[in-house]
Design a protein that fits this description.
Pfam families: CT_A_B (PF02626). One of its GO terms (molecular function) is hydrolase activity. InterPro entries: CT_A_B, Cyclophilin-like_dom_sf, PxpC. This is Allophanate hydrolase. Keywords: ATP-binding, Hydrolase, Nucleotide-binding. This protein is mainly β. It has two domains: 149 residues, no CATH class; 112 residues, Cyclophilin-like (Cyclophilin, Beta Barrel), CATH 2.40.100. The chain is built from two helices and 19 strands. Strands 1, 2, 3, 4, 5, 6, 7, 8 and 9 form a nine-stranded antiparallel beta sheet that branches. An eight-stranded mixed beta sheet has the order 18-11-12-15-14-17-10-19, with helices on one face. A two-stranded antiparallel sheet has the order 13-16. The N and C termini lie far apart (58 Å). The model has no long low-confidence stretch (mean pLDDT 93).
C-alpha cells in the first residue's frame, strides 16, 4: 500500500510568505537569480531544531501565517521573535514544538525583527526547480508565493527534534563592508561615506534589495553624467544609482547591473538585512 502523503494545509497568510531553501547559485549566466532564505542562520537553526537536513525547505514569513498539518508533526519558529500558538495556546519560540494532527499553528507579527522562519519536520517538499525549492520574487522562478488554501507536501522526517541551540535574537549591529570594484567612481572613499551615514531603511525594500535613505554618495567629477556598462552583480553588493542612495543587493537581486558598486557587505553579516524594516536605522563599519 502506498503511504499517505504528508500535507501542510495553509489556512491563511498575510504579507509575503514563501518557500525558501539555500537557493540556486550557479545559474547567473542564464539570468536566474540565486534566491534562497535571507536570514540563513535563522533558517538553519529552525531545521536543526526539528531534525531536518540543512538543505530542507522552510517557510519564510514576512507577515503572518496559519497552517494545519494533516498528521502529527514537529515544528520550530526562529528568526524574528514572533508569537507562536498551537490550537490557540501560546507555545515556545525557538524550540521544537509538537503539533497534533488537525491542530492549527499560527505565527503572528513579530515583536522584534522582520522575517520569521517556520521549519516542519521533513521539510517543505514542493517540486524543485533547477535543483532548489526556493521562490525567487524577481522572476518568480520556483514555487508560487504561499497563500491561504495552499496544500504543501511535507517530506519524511530525517531525525529527532532537539533543543540544540539558544535562539539568536535578531539584534542588528553595524554591517561590515568590503571594498567594491568601482570605488573610483565616487568623490572620495565611498566606504567613508557609507560608514558615516546615517542610513534609514526605505519602504521600497524587499527580497531584491535593501534601499537606504541618507546622505547621497557623490560621484567623482570625471564620472558625472557617464554610464557604466552592465556587469555581473554579487550577493551583498552595495550599488549606487544616480540618486546617490545605496541599495544592498539581497537574495533575489538581478544578475547584472549598470550602476557602480561602492562596497560589498560581508557575507556573515548579510542576515541582518533580513531583520531590519522600513524606518529603522542601519549602520556600516569597515570589515
Amino acid at each position: 500500500m502506498t503511504p499517505a502523503v504528508r500535507v501542510l494545509e495553509v489556512l491563511a497568510a498575510t504579507g509575503l510568505v514563501t518557500v525558501q531553501d539555500a537557493g540556486r547559485p550557479g545559474f547567473a549566466h542564464l539570468g536566474v537569480p540565486r534566491a534562497g532564505w535571507l536570514d540563513e542562520p535563522a533558517a538553519l537553526l529552525a531545521n536543526r531544531l526539528v531534525g531536518n537536513e540543512a538543505s530542507a525547505a522552510v517557510l519564510e514569513v514576512l507577515g503572518t501565517v496559519a497552517v494545519r498539518p494533516a498528521g502529527p508533526t514537529w515544528v520550530a519558529v526562529t528568526g524574528a521573535c514572533s508569537p507562536v500558538s498551537v490550537a490557540g495556546r501560546a507555545v515556545a519560540f525557538g524550540e521544537p514544538v509538537h503539533v497534533p494532527a488537525g491542530a492549527v499553528l499560527r505565527v503572528d507579527l513579530p515583536m522584534t525583527g522582520v522575517r520569521s522562519y517556520l521549519a516542519v519536520a521533513g521539510g517543505i517538499a514542493v517540486e524543485p526547480v533547477l535543483g532548489s525549492r526556493a521562490t525567487d520574487t524577481l522572476a518568480w522562478v520556483g514555487p508560487a508565493r504561499v497563500e491561504g488554501g495552499a496544500r504543501l507536501p511535507i517530506g519524511a522526517a530525517a531525525g529527532e527534534p532537539q533543543a540544540l541551540d539558544t535562539p539568536r535574537a535578531p539584534m542588528v549591529s553595524a554591517l561590515r563592508l568590503l571594498p567594491g570594484p568601482r570605488a573610483d567612481w565616487f568623490d572620495g572613499d565611498p566606504l567613508d561615506a557609507l560608514v558615516a551615514g546615517p542610513w534609514t531603511v526605505d519602504a521600497d525594500s524587499n527580497r531584491v534589495g535593501l534601499r537606504l535613505d541618507g546622505p547621497a554618495l557623490r560621484r567623482h567629477p570625471a564620472y558625472v553624467g557617464r554610464e557604466l556598462a552592465s556587469e555581473g552583480m554579487v550577493l551583498g553588493a552595495v550599488q549606487v544609482p544616480p540618486s546617490g542612495k545605496p541599495v544592498v543587493f539581497l537574495a533575489d537581486h538581478p544578475v547584472t547591473g549598470g550602476y557602480p558598486v561602492a562596497a560589498v557587505v560581508h557575507p556573515d553579516d548579510l542576515w541582518m538585512c533580513a531583520q531590519v524594516g522600513p524606518g529603522e536605522r542601519l549602520r556600516f563599519r569597515r570589515g
